[in-house]
């Protein structure tokens, strides 16, 4: 039996169209009529994976590092009921808390304080040199609140003791790609508080940013708690 070229092409076209209707399997979504009808092309905060079909042009795509960063608020905006100021010390915080006047209304302190440092190495060093911890003398209650924040947000990698042996590293058969920073090391003991704050705001290496998970005051108290884990510098031995 002889087939015309048109019949052969018709059969091939039908077979191809039939293959497009393949059902979804255990680890396969099946074929899609239009790619973005099943896969969302929207960008999600704190997600390292991006949608590989979203490659229309350079302006519509972003790096995985930028996708993993917390989304910022609209420039110049402050959430209703909160106060956003550049805190320069305890006196400014007392104003926000309403302590300077019996008729003052306290406002919640959150992460809306501006951060005037760009995400690069030069700015990181500048932040370490310039930033001053506005809570240099935390109370026992401050540290008690900071401990669970550290354990949840930091201890999983850096360890509850700060030695870099968190569960992701120390668990059986762990294949964690990089050793978290040992916060008890000499360089971290000598580091300024601004270095820690900068890492919370932007992340470092495989560590993502935590600016959206810790408020302004919580960040400093977590840093203060880390200091309690570190051994105190020993006085220099007297010269014989």
CATH architecture term of the domain at 117-229: Orthogonal Bundle
Question: Radius of gyration over alpha carbons?
Answer: 27 Å
Question: What is the CA-CA span between the terminal residues?
Answer: 110 Å
SSE arrangement, N to C: HHHHHHHHHH
The first-level CATH class name of the domain at 117-229 = Mainly Alpha
> Which structural class matches the secondary elements?
mainly alpha
Which runs of at least 5 residues are low in confidence (pLDDT < 50)? none
Q: Sketch the major β-sheet.
A: none
Q: CATH fold name of the domain at 117-229, please? A: Cytochrome Bc1 Complex, Chain D, domain 2
Helical content band: 25-40%
**Strand runs, count:** 0
Question: Which percent range describes the beta-strand content?
Answer: under 5%
Shape: elongated
Number of helical runs? Answer: 10
Q: Kindly state the mean pLDDT as a whole number?
A: 77
CATH superfamily membership of the domain at 117-229: Cytochrome c-like domain
Short characterization:
This protein is mainly α. The protein has helices at 5-19, 64-67, 90-96, 121-130, 140-153, 155-158, 167-170, 186-190, 193-202, 216-229.
Walk me through what this model shows:
The chain is mainly alpha-helical. The protein has a domain at 117-229: Cytochrome Bc1 Complex, Chain D, domain 2, CATH 1.10.760. Helices cover 36% and strands 0% of the residues. The chain is built from ten helices and no strands. Helix 4 crosses helix 9 (193-202) and helix 5 (140-153) crosses helix 10 (216-229). The longest helix has 15 residues, at 5-19. The mean pLDDT is 77.
């Amino acid at each position: 039996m002889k087939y015309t070229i048109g019949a052969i092409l018709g059969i091939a076209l039908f077979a191809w169209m039939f293959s497009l209707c393949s059902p979804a399997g255990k680890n396969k979504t099946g074929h899609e009529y239009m790619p973005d009808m099943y896969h969302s092309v929207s960008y999600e905060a704190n997600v390292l994976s991006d949608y590989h079909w979203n490659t229309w042009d350079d302006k519509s795509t972003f790096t995985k590092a930028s996708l993993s960063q917390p989304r910022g608020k609209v420039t110049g905006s402050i959430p209703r009921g909160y106060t956003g100021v550049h805190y320069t010390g305890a006196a400014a915080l007392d104003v926000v808390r309403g302590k300077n006047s019996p008729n003052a209304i306290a406002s919640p302190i959150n992460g809306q304080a501006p951060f005037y440092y760009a995400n690069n190495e030069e700015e990181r060093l500048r932040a370490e040199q310039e930033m001053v911890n506005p809570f240099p003398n935390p109370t026992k209650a401050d540290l008690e609140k900071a401990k669970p924040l550290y354990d949840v947000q930091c201890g999983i990698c850096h360890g509850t003791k700060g030695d870099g042996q968190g569960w992701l590293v120390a668990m059986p058969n762990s294949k964690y790609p990089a050793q978290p920073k040992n916060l008890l090391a000499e360089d971290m003991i000598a580091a300024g508080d601004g270095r820690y704050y900068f890492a919370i705001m932007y992340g470092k290496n495989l560590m993502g940013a935590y600016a959206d998970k810790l408020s302004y005051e919580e960040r400093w108290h977590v840093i203060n708690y880390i200091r309690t884990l570190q051994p105190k510098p020993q006085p220099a031995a007297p010269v014989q």
